[in-house]
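Page 37, continued from 36.
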């Protein structure tokens, strides 16, 4: 029996980072894998093999003309994480072609990182380390004049998608009072998640710990402008963990530098960060967009792709990856992570 044809075009990721040897063996047994020595896949190979492809693993551009030629195509399994606007989603979805993203693979790694950044800001972990190395350490209570507890604190989440849900599970151990602003979710859904629905003004003004986790869409680019950021509770801990495009980043840095709130970020407007970018000398706690791209997440990506591809080839619906939805996929604007020394290192 002839194996189904699957195009493997994972750029900017690398095949070896997505599939370990055992996973690659499983994939190879499942389908005839077509890949190119160059990355991304060359146009001529795409055009030649597209009519036979049952699935595409990657973010291959799929305008209407290509979708029309892909008569056997059942699924596009995006292994970058963001729903690129290089696919004619209307053409795919109207033909029953599933477009899936591995974004959920990054939820727990990013949630753990943003929690770690918040705890650092609350307890001065890296600041104390620097003080000890400089011979300026202070002991006991004298070293904790501004320390905060996240336990039983009021915590605000802006955005309650994959990362927000993962963070809520982590925060449950701290008995935190969690309030959430997410205009795409009804209050009943949030209450079922054991969090309290709240409007944006309330979340900003009353949260001692604030996590900005909303992805960029056509509805919310830059919606946290300077005037909005100025309403954040004084001396609160603010962590930007999704995409810089949802905030006025210059204002965010300015207010943190002025001591308005304590801030950390894992994302930046331009990546890699320019050598002379003032953010390098700011008071922010900085992480170079590395929250999601860890080995465990890469292994999870391989598992998710194999599990869902196996189901699709059996005529069953996928269960692990995140499906593109008619109502929202056209709004997605989150850029891919860039700046790592190896392709596809970010989330």
């Amino acid at each position: 029996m002839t194996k189904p044809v699957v195009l493997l075009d994972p750029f900017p990721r690398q095949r070896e980072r997505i599939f370990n040897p055992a996973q690659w063996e499983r994939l190879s047994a499942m389908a005839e894998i077509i890949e190119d020595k160059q990355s991304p896949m060359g146009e001529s190979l795409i055009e030649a093999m597209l009519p036979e492809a049952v699935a595409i693993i990657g973010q291959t551009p799929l305008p209407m003309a290509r979708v029309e030629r892909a008569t056997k195509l059942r699924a596009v399994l995006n292994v970058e994480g963001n729903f690129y606007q290089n696919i004619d989603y209307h053409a795919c979805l109207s033909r029953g072609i599933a477009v899936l993203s591995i974004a959920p693979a990054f939820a727990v790694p990013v949630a753990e990182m943003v929690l770690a950044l918040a705890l650092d800001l609350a307890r001065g972990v890296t600041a104390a380390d620097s003080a000890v190395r400089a011979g300026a350490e202070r002991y006991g209570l004298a070293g904790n004049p501004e320390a905060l507890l996240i336990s039983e604190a009021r915590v605000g989440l802006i955005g309650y998608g994959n990362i927000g849900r993962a963070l809520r599970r982590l925060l449950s151990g701290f008995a935190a009072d969690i309030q959430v602003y997410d205009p795409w979710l009804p209050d009943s859904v949030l209450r079922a998640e054991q969090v309290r629905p709240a409007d944006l003004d309330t979340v900003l003004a009353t949260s001692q710990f604030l996590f900005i986790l909303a992805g960029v869409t056509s509805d919310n680019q830059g919606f946290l402008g300077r005037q909005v950021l100025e309403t954040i509770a004084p001396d609160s801990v603010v962590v930007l963990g999704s995409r810089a495009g949802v905030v006025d980043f210059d204002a965010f840095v300015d207010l943190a530098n002025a001591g308005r709130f304590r801030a950390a970020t894992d994302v930046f407007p331009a990546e890699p960060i320019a050598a002379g970018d003032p953010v390098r000398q700011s008071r922010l706690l900085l992480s170079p967009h590395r929250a999601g791209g860890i080995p465990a997440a890469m292994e999870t990506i391989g598992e998710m792709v194999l599990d869902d591809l196996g189901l699709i080839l059996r005529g069953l619906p996928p269960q692990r990856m995140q499906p593109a939805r008619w109502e929202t996929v056209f709004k997605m604007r989150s850029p891919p992570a860039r700046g790592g020394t190896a392709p596809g290192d970010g989330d």
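The mean pLDDT is 96. Flag for discussion at group meeting. The first helix runs from residue 15 to 18.
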